[in-house]
Amino acid sequence: MERAILSGNEAFARGAFEAGVRVASAYPGTPSTEILENIANYPEIDSSWAPNEKVSLEVAIGASFGGARSMVAMKHVGVNVAADPLLTMSYIGVGGGLVVVAADDPEMHSSQNEQDSRHYARLAKIPMLEPSDSDEALAFTKLAFDLSEQFDTPVMLRSNTRISHGKSIVNLGPRRTDLPAPALQRNPGKFVMLPANARKRHPIVEQRLLDLEIWGCQQPINRVEDGEGELGVITAGISYQYAKEVLPKAHVLKLGMVFPLPKQMIRDFAARCKTLYVIEELDPFIEDQIRAMGIEVNGKETFPICGEFTPGRLATALGLPTSQGVAAAAETLPNRPPNMCPGCSHRGAFYELKRLGAYVTGDIGCYTLGALPPLSAMDTCVCMGAGISNATGLSKVLTPEERKKVVGVMGDSTFLHSGITSLMDMAYNNTAGTVVILDNRITAMTGRQDNPTSGHTLAGIESPPVDLEAICRAVGVKHVRVEDPYDLAQTRKALQEEMERPEVSVVIFRRACMLDRHSRAERHAPLFVKADSCVGCKACLKIGCPAIEWQEGAAGEKGRAQINQVLCVGCGVCKQLCKFDAFGDGHE
Amino acid sequence: MNNRINNIYLAGVGGQGTLLASEILAEVLMTAGHDVKKSEIHGMSQRGGSVTSHVRYGKRVFSPLIPEGEADVLFGFELLETYRYLPMLRPGGTVVVNDLKIIPAPVAMGAERYPETIPAKIRAVCPDAVIVDGMELAQQAGNVRTVNTVLLGALSLRMELDHSLWLAALNKMVPEKFLNENLEAFRLGRES
To answer: Per the CATH hierarchy, to which homologous superfamily does domain A346-510 belong?
Structure first.
């Protein structure tokens, strides 16, 4: 059998390929993004970026209605967006197998919350499998499709940052080619969820959970690993790996299916162990259900709910000794926070918003970094699409004078994800508001994926880009203007005019992302600082460009700015801040 | 093979090629017959932030994360990031570090200072630390972007793995048009 070292995301993609999946769709979101990027490498699968997670799931559902196996992948908060179709699909069941991968982000490495996706499986009453490494990610993906068709249910696969972005060795297999050909299937009693039909489906869903519970007690996906002594651990997913590391001698009940739980198996295991721990990251999901069975367990009274587990954190929670490494630096070290790239088109817009004293209701993307110093130009950030609708709500309660300060800001991808309806609401309900769309033509933060403004699909095929100005006008905005955020004076003028306007208006700041895949970003020769012109006023440091470095002066002398010639892309924004003409173009 | 797990902790800055280096390292370890796990954070860290990667190998690896204080090798692509993660290294462990400063934003803005004489401070706690002039050697190899391969070359000397496995992994994973300069970079790093 061929072996390879794959990330969890590569393994989910490989599993989809081997399972005979025909359609895959997703909206990018860390840590799930690479699943679709890797599926796109298999020409047998129709893969595409959808504008949001709900659309992606509905596309997959359509393919399932046609009898094809289909898969979607999303980050944990993406499940919130896709929850509506997900919960009703539980009643409908499937045509072809339907699998939803939800990638959680304990520790919030790249997320705004650390919600535990397992609750969705319980809420939707569908099975959830949770792999503990890449090999299981591949194997469980294939199993999930079989389970989906066998029990007529969507199946969730739960990943997290350490599974998705961790690599381990997997065994590769061939693609299934024996699946029935897709075709139209008419079955309104099952596919049309009118109340009368849904009432008939609900008891089927309840019975399905009972059947799945029995299945889970008989299948090797849930297994007992015998240890020594009287200590038992019930665990799943990545927590299994940490538990094996820290408690190598314990008896372990490793759950591959975390919902529904194999209750009889748990009862039998509990009866063998004098002390029983449930080791699970985030919420006491397994623990609470076991307690409800009347079994005494130790879980969140010992292990943290907040943050991700590590071997060290588990050992500390258990009162076990931990290793002492080399002594840490005795001095305080400067942090290295992420930053907008040199030449990033968002920088000028945030700099001017800050200068104008704007109250920015922001959103999710690279531009959320505008909240960090020195720009410090974002006042709220909730979720995808909230930037505009939060501005609407705030505008409703402020005086007309204060209202002028409120600016809803979001990127092109976020606007298409869920900002259009927010703008429609603002315009149609006549709430005066200023909206900024930072249009860099890609979904940058997750790794510069193409979106409907990009002009290319995931498969690399050219497609006419959506017209943002036309969308804004079509939902009722009369004042729509496009500006260049590299031109600070004009950026300021445009913002000032629109913030003053007692009507809805949209300013689109358009400049290609510096990491654009289609080489649309402009690069010029790096600037340099004229040593005798720079007075060390630090005005240029206020835009937080990584290419501008402050050089301390020798004793008694002033410091001055210096430009890192490797990083500078010659956008010229810093030059516009300098009152002393200290920036030179190119290698003069 | 005993069941001891070997740990290599990589530290660098987003955009330096740290992740590609860890991929090549993991490939070499797998072809050498080890169980291998590797873990890192993408996303926010790509935007010039601090990047770390855990590589573990042995007979059977469970946790993909190295417990603090148990790294056998601290493999650093930048001085400050290496200095920052010294507590990951076990006492007596090996440091291989690129002699390169990349100024973080708070220092560039003049709000904080980049620590002085980091190589000496690392040597004070790890006397055998290997400090590699990666940029100079990468330039000699014909492309500064090969610096991660130079560093892999330097690391390879400190690991008991067959030289041919490294060359095979480079041949497999480096794009054809950059292969020769990377093979040269690996050789220069190994001889440094």
So the answer is: Thiamin diphosphate (ThDP)-binding fold, Pyr/PP domains (3.40.50.970)
Prediction pTM value? 0.96
- CA-CA distance, B173 to B165, in Å (whole number)? 12
Size of interface A-B (CB pairs under 8 A): 185
For A545, the closest chain B residue by CA position comes to B105
Residues of B in contact with A241 (CB under 8 A): 62-64
- φ/ψ (deg, to 5) at B56: -130, 140
d(CA B90, CA B87): 8
For B5-53, the pLDDT digits (tens) are 999 999 999 888 888 899 999 999 999 999 999 998 865 556 678 899 9
The secondary element (H helix, E strand) that includes residue A104 is strand A98-104
Closest CA to A548 of A569, A532, A524, A523: A569
Superfamily of domain B6-191: Pyruvate-ferredoxin oxidoreductase, PFOR, domain III (3.40.920.10)
The CATH fold of domain A528-584: Alpha-Beta Plaits (3.30.70)
Question: In this complex, do A338 and B26 lie within 8 Å of one another by their Cβ atoms?
Answer: no
* CATH match of A223-317 with 3.40.50.920: yes
Chain A residues in contact with B84 (beta carbon < 8 A): 329, 333
- Name the residue among B36, B108, B114 with its Cβ closest to that of A5: B36
| Paired tokens of A379 | 């006042």
